[in-house]
Amino acid sequence: MENFVNGDFIVFLSSLINLKASPPIISIISSAMPMHKHKVSVHLLSFQALVFFLSIFIHFSHCDVGTASHYGPPFLPTACYGKDASEFPSSNMFASAGEGIWDNGAACGRQYQVRCISAAAPRTCIPGQLIQIKIVDRAQSTVSRPSRDGTSMVLSTTAFQAIANASASLINIEFQQV
Ligand SMILES: *[C@@H]1O[C@H](CO)[C@@H](O)[C@H](O)[C@H]1NC(C)=O
Predict the structure, then answer these.
(1) Is 143 in the pocket of ligand 1 (CB under 6 A)?
(2) Is the CB–ligand 1 distance for residue 126 below 6 Å?
């Protein structure tokens, strides 16, 4: 058992129980482990196995936690599509990427599911609301300025008010690329 490196152990586990475990979960768990330690204690392996099995049973999915602000028109031009308005979803569910997810422009067109988890003022989040947005711009260079700088993403007013009280300038969010 001690000869397994961390990642191998997880892959071994998943093949052992013949699960179609999602590769992201395996890679998340693997990447969370120090790669330079090739010998790990049985205790640590047990803990990792526990996390792994728990993740299956509670349908754990990898979400990031961050913040969101909002912005209104004018939206053009954008850092992603210039003056091309046809890239905007007709639902108006879109957002600008903060630097953390901008990814040197690769974020353009990516879709995220976003939910509001908390805010400074109580009852700001609309309970149970999950939206899906498309990244169309870079937050730091949008034409109209966000309600708050430096957030993970800046939601269109339409998107923001679908999950939170629109009079808030900042909310805490959970988001996941889809
Ligand atoms: C939104 O927040 C404002 C300011 O806190 C408050 O006056 C208003 O009633 C809230 N709106 C809703 C729908 O809760």
Answers:
(1) no
(2) no
